[in-house]
Design brief:
The structure holds two protein chains of two kinds. By secondary structure, chain A is an alpha/beta fold. Chain A contains ten helices and ten strands. Classes of the chains: A alpha/beta, B alpha/beta. Chain B: Keywords: ATP-binding, Nucleotide-binding.
Chain lengths: 274, 662
């Protein structure tokens, strides 16, 4: 028998939200660490099916924003509505269960484990059988493992990393590690994928590859993406809408072209005295 | 010749006829495997027939008719191979095209071949073809295998492979007699139809479409299948370019005739791994792949522990001493046999297993000269590696070495049913069962390639050795003379240089000049490793190539090359006097190599004319700018000051007299 998974069956789960409707709504969020105000009164939203970029100079609060979205930080003020549900305090693994996955600015993989195992780790959130079954490994747990392995193989094929399936990720070049990390996030089949500087430290060719994967994730799998990125060319080409932060405040929000010509944005990037 | 009548009363003179036969006789045996989603998927001959049939009927519904040309572009995948058989079953002619060809090369071939349909692998190829759609008005429909990224493309002329097969299935369901009619058409087909059109790699100018008649193709394949006793129990890994005669002949043609299983790798990068999993029984690789294998083994052994290294060295010496004799069934002392058997257990066996060569019954190499050391390394491990010499115009085989009569410096006697002769000016000419029936639309070129009495001119200069094996010296038109009148055979000199693992490519100059000089390309893997071991830091290929220590290393190789040349009476006159290490790797994307990675001599000569002049005007360094193509297709310039060094020349040895006296 020759089974090819149907790509249409994989990807973002059907959460009853139509394309273009509100998926995430961040309202008047403020976050501070002691006296340091990381984020001040920021509101923006992410619509289902779009690529949303968060940009801004160093220290603008972009990563803090991502950390708020995936529940790592709890904001002092404001509210976050995800899939129509308001939440306040939560842990990152709750966010994962809600369908939010992310990659990190510095690759955060299990270095000693193979690519395959790293991506399989991303499936753990979907595993139904408990530790006891997993240790026994036969019967239902094996059937479940096969099912997950199929999804993981689909991701490996999608990201074209077949040749490093069994390679420990610590041995891989940086660009490939980034790709494995994306694979692990995809394994969670998120409704919202957060990418923290997916192109950082990459050469031109790797950037082109990564851009293509991001577009494919978005278009083929229908995954909504919010990304932070410094490469303006990439941001302007990839994203549907861009929100610009500077010193923890939102200074612009809109289509790439509009943002590009916004005077405040230009000032923020060129460095005008505040 | 091999036109055996079967029970069904058909004369086996086309590949689709073999498809029907194999589905009958080997119905349950695997015909094709492909690693997909991490698992080896397989199709039996019966299933393969069903796949080809639904594709063929789908294509027919799309408008494919007898005589239409169908381009096939992509890597080795079952669906593309089915494309060949499906086209042939309708009397259409498959035209495989190199998947890595840049847009303009591909446009030329598709236009020249007048293809009306194209079966391509993925978005990359679709994009490429659509980028020059206006230049190929004959092309009507494109069928793609992988839908990825193509969802939003206009689908007026674009079709999913599965959709075409599905339409074939629907027709089959609607019309009960359709399957029988399809098979009847195959049985009625003539062996005089063109089976395939293969484009030459274009070492000299534009590539030409070589037309191979079905009966010729089948006869040639049947001869070599019998020669190497290939059967349905054999298996191969198909990993070489689809468009190359070698892949089409060795895997497709021989596979259909013998019924062996063809395995397609998961991706280009996983070939080594897939080879290990499949463990094929028949294997072909050009010398550079064997060289790569040896280099990687050597590098890994250098990092191994002391005991392992000692074992490896010791048993390799044992293998060198007895291995070849054991392989050829010669006489070996009992103690030697026992020691070799121990070595097989401890070293050779595991090594062959890692390389995926454990089950090899027959392995071939061809295309370039292979170094004696390299060749005997693999043979001493017990791998039956042989050489063949062939051409697209011959549908591959011209000569082939018999088991037990194998040498590294010759390519064997004539293959079964092939006539070879050497013309008065030293050119090799042949007539063979598989020989081509002409270049497509180029009758003048066809006439140029044939002699009056119907022999094909190979364009290679060669001679028969005492034991009847053919030795190829060089391309006939490349062989020249120095001002002194000494013979100058550039390929011979380049090959001698290339036997050093550190030298990846070399280009020799000297025809009509005072002395012989050479460009040398270092091998980044080998030299890079050497540099690492010797604490030599470098940031780029260019920097490594220009490093003084690297120059010293290469100078040693040039010196040894000259010593070897001095021992060859014919070649001693053309030793290398001056050389330089090129700042840039010769690349097919820049037109310096052909797609089969052979140097395009005249092009390189023009492109680096300033450097060649510097080789001859006595200067010690030369500033140069070279245009190059980056991976993403953009063009740029690299600038470098290239140093030029002198090399020592040896006196020709006295052996000359002895040779002459014989």
């Amino acid at each position: 028998m020759n089974v090819r998974p149907d790509p249409a069956q994989l990807g973002a789960p059907d959460d009853g939200i139509a394309k273009g409707d509100l998926l995430l709504d961040v309202k008047n969020v403020s976050l501070s660490f002691g006296g340091v105000k990381a984020i001040t009164d920021i509101s923006f939203d992410v619509r289902k099916g779009e690529i949303r970029a968060i940009i801004g100079p160093n220290g603008a609060g972009k990563t803090s924003m991502l950390n708020v979205i995936n529940g790592f930080y709890t904001p002092q003020r404001g509210s976050i509505v995800f899939r129509g549900e308001e939440r306040r305090a939560m842990k990152p693994h709750h966010a994962v269960r809600q369908g939010i996955a992310r990659t990190f600015q510095n690759v955060a993989l299990f270095k000693g484990m193979s690519t395959l195992d790293n991506i399989m780790a991303g499936r753990s959130v979907k595993m139904k059988r408990g530790l006891g079954w997993q240790m026994l490994w036969h019967g239902p747990a094996l059937a479940e493992e096969i099912e997950h392995r199929e999804k993981v193989e689909e991701i490996i094929d999608f990201l074209e990393i077949q040749h490093i399936r069994k390679t420990p990720v610590g041995k891989l070049p940086y660009g490939l590690q980034k790709r494995v990390e994306l694979g692990r996030a995809l394994a969670m089949e998120p409704s919202l994928l957060l990418l923290d500087e997916p192109m950082a430290g990459m050469n031109l060719e790797e950037k082109e590859d990564m851009s293509r994967f991001i577009i494919d994730v978005n278009q083929q799998r229908g995954t909504t993406i919010a990304l932070i990125e410094h490469d303006m060319g990439v941001v302007m080409d990839l994203s549907d809408r861009v929100v610009v932060l500077d010193y923890g405040k939102k200074i612009a929000d809109g289509a790439p072209d509009a943002v590009k010509t916004n005077q405040q944005v230009i000032d923020a990037y060129l460095g005008v005295a505040h | 010749m091999v036109a055996t009548a079967t029970a069904a009363g058909m004369v086996l003179d086309t590949f689709p006829k073999y498809l029907l036969l194999n589905a009958e006789r080997f119905g349950r045996l695997p015909a094709m495997r492909h690693k997909d989603y991490g698992i080896w998927q397989s199709w039996t001959w019966a299933e393969q027939k069903v796949q080809v049939r639904s594709l063929a009927l789908g294509l027919q519904a799309l408008g494919v008719k007898h005589g239409d040309k169908i381009a096939i572009v992509g890597t080795n995948r079952p669906r593309l191979y089915w494309g060949f058989a499906a086209a042939q079953s309708l009397g259409a002619i498959p035209v495989p095209v190199y998947a890595d060809a840049v847009a303009e090369e591909m446009a030329y071939v598709l236009d020249n071949a007048e293809v009306r349909f194209a079966i391509v692998q993925d978005q990359e190829q679709v994009d490429k073809i659509q980028s020059f759609a206006d230049k190929i008005p004959a092309l009507k429909e494109i069928i793609y295998d992988e839908p990825r990224g193509l969802r939003d493309y206009g689908h007026e002329r674009l079709h999913d492979f599965s959709a075409i097969q599905a339409s074939g299935e629907t027709l089959l369901e609607a019309d009960a007699g359709l399957a029988a009619r399809w098979e009847e058409n195959i049985r009625q087909a003539s062996g005089d139809d063109i089976s395939v059109m293969l484009y030459t790699s274009g070492t000299t100018g534009r590539s030409k479409g070589v037309m191979i008649k079905a009966s010729n193709a089948v006869n040639a394949a049947a001869d070599t299948v019998a020669f190497d006793r290939l059967s349905q129990r054999d298996s191969v890994l198909a990993y070489l370019p689809l468009a190359w005669v070698g892949d089409h002949y060795l895997n497709y043609a021989q596979g259909y005739v013998s019924g062996f299983c063809m395995c397609c790798p998961e991706s280009h990068e996983t070939v080594a791994h897939d080879l290990r999993e499949i463990g094929p029984t028949f294997y072909f690789a050009p010398p550079r792949i064997f060289e790569g294998l040896l280099t990687s083994v050597t590098i890994r052994m250098e990092d191994a522990g002391r005991l392992k290294r000692w074992m490896f060295d010791y048993y390799l010496r044992v293998a060198r001493k007895y291995g070849q004799a054991i392989l050829e069934g010669g006489s070996v002392p009992l103690l030697g046999r026992l020691n070799y058997a121990l070595g097989e257990m401890l070293v050779y066996g595991p090594l062959k297993n890692v390389l995926g060569l454990s089950n090899i019954r027959v392995a071939y190499t061809a295309g370039e000269a292979i170094g004696e050391d390299l060749f005997s390394f693999f043979r001493s491990l017990g791998i039956n590696l042989k050489q063949l010499y062939g051409q697209t115009e011959a549908f591959l085989y011209v000569t082939v070495q018999k088991d037990g009569a194998v040498r590294s410096d010759a390519v064997g006697p004539a293959a079964p049913n092939v006539d070879i002769r050497i013309s008065n000016d030293g050119e090799v000419q042949f007539r063979s069962p598989g020989m081509f029936s002409g270049y497509f639309k180029q009758d003048d070129k066809t006439r140029e390639a044939l002699t009056k009495d119907g022999y094909v001119k190979t364009g290679d200069a060669g001679f028969f050795d005492k034991d009847g094996q053919l030795k190829i010296i060089d391309r006939a038109k490349d062989v020249g003379k120095l001002e002194s009148g000494a013979l100058f055979a550039p390929k011979y000199i380049e090959n001698t240089l290339k036997f050093f693992p550190n030298v990846k490519e070399a280009v020799a100059f000297g025809d009509g000049r005072g002395f012989c000089a050479a460009f040398i390309n270092i091998d980044l893997q080998a030299v890079g490793n050497w540099a690492e071991r010797n604490n030599i830091a470098y940031a780029s290929y260019q920097e490594l190539a220009g490093h003084p220590e690297v120059y010293k290393l290469i100078a040693k190789h040039v010196d040894e090359t000259n010593l070897r040349l001095s021992r060859e009476p014919l070649m001693a006159g053309a030793q290398i006097r001056r050389f330089l290490v090129l700042h840039k790797e010769l690349d097919a994307d820049d037109g310096e190599l052909t797609r089969t990675l052979k140097v395009r001599r005249s092009f390189v000569g023009e492109r680096y004319s300033d450097l060649i002049e510097a080789l001859y005007d006595g200067s010690t360094e030369k500033y140069t700018e070279t245009e190059m193509t980056f991976e993403d297709g953009r063009k740029g310039k690299i600038r470098a000051t290239v140093r030029i060094e002198d090399a020592r020349v040896y006196d020709a040895k006295v052996e000359k007299f002895r040779e002459a006296a014989e």
